[in-house]
TrEMBL record:
The chain crosses the membrane at residues 28-47, 53-73, 80-99, 105-128, 135-153, 159-181. This is Acid-resistance membrane protein. The gene is hdeD. Keywords: Membrane, Transmembrane, Transmembrane helix. Pfam families: DUF308. It comes from Cellulomonas composti. One of its GO terms (cellular component) is plasma membrane. InterPro entries: Acid_resist_chaperone_HdeD (IPR052712), DUF308_memb (IPR005325).
Length: 198
């Protein structure tokens, strides 16, 4: 498929790394699929929330087991117990999420609400240190603060919808970004070719 470079911000710092944004045909196809998927998710946010909690639970279990197994490579070292206990904790969290997705949804929702609240307060405080676009920081901070307060005050009402809504919105914006601008490509300007994709 065609490869059209849409943006070239240039070299970042003295490391010889250049970031460009290129859109290929595959990016457009993936973007369209993400947009269509976002409509499906937003069409039934409750099911999307439950599925998200199940995915998080299984991811925590798999990651915890992998971390616990990897900890034995450090047996006798300083990081053995920290890594092992971290892996066990992840497995326990995953099992709890899978055992009762509703409770898991409430827990994750409270975390998301606290994150929105903290982000809103931070942005509102930063308004006083910004020279330009203060209204944008103030509007963004106020919106995050309101969402955070609403979620923390109504965690049960928000728990079965918020995660699905956020997932759907994220998929929608990511799909639109891929369709319009493509992905970020990072390459070395020293001639070693692409080193990463985002």
């Amino acid at each position: 498929m065609s490869d059209a470079r849409t943006t070239q911000p240039g070299t970042l710092g003295p490391t010889g790394v250049e970031v460009t944004r290129r859109r290929t045909g595959w990016d457009v196809v993936l973007g369209i699929l993400l947009v269509l998927g976002s409509f499906v998710v937003l069409g039934d946010v409750v099911i999307a929330t439950v599925v998200s909690i199940l995915v998080i639970g299984w991811t925590a279990i798999v990651g915890g087991v992998a971390l616990a197994v990897a900890s034995f490579a450090r047996r006798g070292g300083s990081g053995f117990w920290v890594t092992l206990l971290g892996g066990i904790a992840l497995v326990v969290v995953g099992i709890l999420l899978l055992a009762d997705p509703k409770v898991g949804a409430i827990t994750v929702t409270l975390f998301v609400g606290a994150t929105f609240f903290a982000a809103g307060v931070t942005r509102l405080v930063m308004v006083f240190s910004q020279r330009g676009h203060r209204w944008l920081w103030a509007l963004s901070g106020l919106a995050s603060l309101v969402v955070g307060i609403w979620v923390l005050v109504n965690p049960i009402a928000a728990s079965m919808t918020l995660i699905g809504v956020l997932l759907g919105i994220e998929m929608l914006f990511e799909g639109i970004t891929l369709i319009v601008a493509g992905r970020l490509h990072v390459r070395s300007t020293g001639g070693s070719g692409p080193i990463a994709y985002a």
